[in-house]
């Protein structure tokens, strides 16, 4: 087991900035706004052949009500998991009562706690941190996380007792099937994530925009490895005003591209709105396998349910291959049925089809329904092969392929999908025309042949004049 290093402290002391410095990434959102981080963010890190896990947490000690209480619970869970705790304080703000309360709680745990005085740049470090000695946690480590100053020395002092390990790949934490959960704000994404994991892993609160970052959560289920990605809700562009929310949207779109399968969560009680279709469209453009989950299905009247089903048939006609599940993330109804559809979509997205088999299906499809004529010539499709996975890319070679109409392309896509039973994933078809080897080359005519042709033309003209 890798050792776990948790970053604990008040809001806005620089924990996320330090997290990014240690993991050498930009996985944690950073801004000069208290309470930006709300969920536990995990990251892999190495230092001098020592590998460990870093946990970024939300601020604690400011309030015990509302969403702050949920953030504090997340931080306490991280403390319980940690082998080493970095208690981060703000050297510029000085010692506050909440710092003292956190220090009292940490001293009772019996774990290794290192005091980290951040933001020492621009101040006299020794004088600024002198008051923190009264916390009873030893000599503070001086760092300026925003500039990376003192971070290496901090890791050297903190990790001195850890055994050496083989360096790991920076993406090793993204194991197995990567599953992103996306949707509009407050549709129940985090509730679904917790239900899938079987624990209160991310903050759930009855307020739109609770999740601000994309949280990558590796876990194992029935012997299979997964990485579950909880994302921030995406609203219409015209309603996204705060800079933080814009960063959150970018992180969500990145998570879609990182994922193998995307679960799109919709709110049954609000109906299917345009923003839901926009999110589906982005997942399709990224070529990701899709599973649709209609959440908050419990407690609805029969009339409301019939209205939602009618809307589903009408508005999801452009993705008939995507599985739709009616669930209640809060009570767990139908959540277990998501996994078979997720696996089918994943397997379809990574299906490898041999070239002879693809070509045979193409020939049968063309024989059953010929391509149209172009300028009096029939479009010819000769053979097909796989050009990529996730999504499956089928490359078809032939003549005049630039003129293949969209309707015929859809016909071929439906044939391939039906024959190879590709479910839950888009299919991309790319046409390639064979190059004409004589294009741009002029035929060199023998002079004797050219002279014979000229005399024949002259003779033909004279005969034509006599007939007239």
UniProtKB/TrEMBL annotation:
The keyword Cell cycle does not apply. GO terms for molecular function: GTP binding; ribosome binding. Residues 3-166, 177-350 form the EngA-type G domain. GTP 1 binds at residues 9-16, 56-60, 118-121. Gene3D superfamilies: 3.30.300.20, P-loop containing nucleotide triphosphate hydrolases. SUPFAM superfamilies: P-loop containing nucleoside triphosphate hydrolases (SSF52540). One of its GO terms (biological process) is ribosome biogenesis. GTP 2 binds at residues 183-190, 230-234, 295-298. The keyword Ribosomal protein does not apply. Keywords: GTP-binding, Nucleotide-binding, Repeat, Ribosome biogenesis. InterPro entries: G_ENGA, GTP-bd, GTPase_Der, KH_dom-like, KH_dom-like_a/b, P-loop_NTPase, Small_GTP-bd. Belongs to the TRAFAC class TrmE-Era-EngA-EngB-Septin-like GTPase superfamily. EngA (Der) GTPase family. GTPase that plays an essential role in the late steps of ribosome biogenesis. Associates with the 50S ribosomal subunit. This is GTPase Der. The gene is der.
């Amino acid at each position: 087991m890798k050792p776990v290093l948790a970053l604990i402290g008040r809001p806005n002391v620089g924990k996320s900035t330090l997290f990014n410095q240690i993991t050498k990434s930009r996985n944690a959102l950073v801004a000069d706004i208290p309470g930006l981080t709300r969920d536990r963010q995990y990251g892999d890190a190495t230092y001098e052949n020592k590998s460990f896990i870093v946990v970024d947490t939300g601020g604690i000690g400011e309030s015990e009500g509302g969403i702050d209480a949920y953030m504090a619970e997340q931080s306490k869970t991280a403390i319980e998991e940690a082998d080493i705790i970095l208690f981060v304080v703000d050297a510029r703000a000085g010692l506050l009562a909440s710092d003292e309360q956190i220090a009292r709680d940490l001293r009772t745990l019996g774990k290794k706690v290192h005091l980290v005085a951040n933001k020492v740049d621009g101040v006299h470090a020794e004088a600024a941190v002198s008051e923190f000695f009264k916390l009873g946690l030893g000599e503070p480590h001086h760092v300026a996380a925003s500039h990376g100053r003192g971070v290496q020395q901090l890791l050297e002092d903190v990790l001195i007792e850890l055994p050496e390990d083989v360096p790991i790949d920076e993406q090793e934490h993204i194991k197995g099937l990567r599953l992103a959960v996306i949707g509009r704000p407050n549709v129940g994404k985090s509730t679904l994530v917790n239900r899938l994991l079987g624990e209160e892993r991310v903050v759930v609160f009855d307020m739109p925009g609770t999740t601000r970052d994309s949280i990558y959560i590796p876990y194992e289920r029935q012997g299979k490895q997964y990485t579950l990605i909880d994302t921030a809700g995406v609203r219409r562009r015209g309603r996204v005003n705060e800079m933080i929310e814009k960063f959150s949207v970018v992180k969500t779109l990145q998570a879609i591209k990182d994922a193998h399968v995307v679960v799109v969560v919709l709110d049954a009680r609000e109906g299917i709105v345009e923003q839901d279709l926009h999110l589906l469209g982005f997942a399709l453009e990224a070529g990701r396998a899709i599973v649709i989950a209609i959440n908050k299905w419990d407690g609805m009247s029969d009339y409301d349910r019939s209205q939602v089903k009618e809307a589903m048939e009408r508005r999801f006609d452009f993705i008939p291959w995507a599985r739709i599940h009616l669930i209640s993330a809060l009570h767990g109804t139908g959540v277990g049925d998501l996994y078979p559809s997720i696996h089918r979509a994943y397997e379809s997205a990574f299906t490898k089809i041999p070239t002879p088999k693809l070509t045979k299906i193409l020939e049968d499809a063309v024989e059953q329904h010929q391509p149209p004529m172009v300028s009096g010539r029939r479009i010819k499709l000769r053979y097909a092969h796989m050009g990529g996975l996730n999504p499956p890319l089928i490359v078809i070679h032939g003549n005049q392929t630039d003129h293949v109409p969209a309707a015929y392309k859809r016909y071929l896509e439906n044939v391939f999908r039906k024959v190879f039973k590709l479910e839950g994933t888009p299919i991309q078809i790319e046409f390639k025309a064979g190059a004409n080897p004589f294009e741009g080359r002029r035929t060199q005519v023998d002079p004797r042949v050219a002279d014979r042709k000229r005399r024949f033309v002259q003779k033909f003209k004279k005969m034509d004049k006599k007939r007239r």
